[in-house]
Amino acid sequence: MKILIITQNFYPEIGSAGNRMKTIFLMLKQKGYHVEVLTTEPTYPSRDIYSQDGFWNERDIDLDRKRITRLSVRNKKYSSNFFSRLFYYLEIMLKMFFYVKKDKNKYDVVFVTSPPIFVAFVGLAAKYRYKAKLLLDIRDLWPESLKGVGVFNRSFIIWLFEKMESALYKKADRIIINSEGFIDHFKNKSEGLTKKLMFLPNAARRKEIVLREREDDSVFNVVYAGNIGLAQDVTMLMQLAKKLGEHHISLNVIGYGVQKQTFTDFVRRHHLKNVKFIKPMGRQDCLNRMSLCDVGIATLNNSRVFETVLPGKIIDYLTCKLPVVASLSGYPKKLIENEKIGFVTSSQSVDEMVNHILKLYHDPKLLRDMQSNCGKFIEENFLWENNINKLTNLLDQIAKG
């Protein structure tokens, strides 16, 4: 079986989207499938960082570059401006469209991941171009997430995007979701769509699970890793950094994104000596660094849109056996509380988050118990070695017709 993966984000790009697609590519290849990738040159969060050798550390991919087609993009960086980002997405979509149109290869399955929704439409075109089955991988509900970050609320355009979204769902042969919180959204669209759904979460690979001793038990380390963007509530993160400083708790930030500079300026302006900035790094290096900390934190804006989302950073924290302290609601809140892998405030309360962190700081037994729960939860639910079988079973069904 020949499979074409179409994705904007791919190795060596950091972030959960690039890592998800890299892992699916590698694991399907290991299972004996012929897999090729159509993607872009790495630009997220900026093109410059990928000149460093440390990001190019997947030998299995680096030695098999002929299976990966990377299209160059004129627009060099991400922007918080909606229209700048829109033109960036459209440029990628058009370049991918032209590539698919001219491509002479044949594929049995097209696997396309969204957002952005424009790349998903390339997948739809590829379905007809190659006369293939279309697997639509949904990592975020779009345009719902547009409304959630509050950058664009023009009703006609949102309505148009929603029509585009519905058309994609209708034309896809199967729909893969990375959060069970998305199920109700599809039910509300059409009861029949739920029959197309398959849950395939972001996960850890067994080799990524790191067991390292904390370097200094006298220092309690909190880590924030990942995107500091429009959805992450940078105001709350700033106040949290300040409050943790009052309790002499270290905050390690391995961050990037359009709001990082705002956060950095706040830290400098308030002379927060407890905040340590760490440059973005390759995935395994990042996991190793995170594993030296005690607690991982996550924040999302107070919008109903994000009640369905399980942030990728939470899976990474659990991989490192870090209990989570978060400001979330809905599906991720229930999961964290039910599995006893952290504490969650749904009231956007900085004081409540700090109190949760202090509770773990002052109760080593509770911290150890939650660390153990994190490890068990990953082993039982979020290992790629187990979960990839869901996808291969689906591919086998497709092969049988």
UniProtKB/TrEMBL annotation:
CDD domains: GT4_WbuB-like (cd03794)
Domain of life: Bacteria
Positions of the Glycosyltransferase subfamily 4-like N-terminal domain: 27-188
Entry annotated with the keyword Repeat: no
Keywords, sorted A to Z: Membrane, Transmembrane, Transmembrane helix
UniProt cross-references to Pfam families, sorted A to Z: Glyco_trans_4_4, Glycos_transf_1
Family: Belongs to the glycosyltransferase group 1 family. Glycosyltransferase 4 subfamily.
Protein name according to UniProt: Glycosyltransferase WbuB
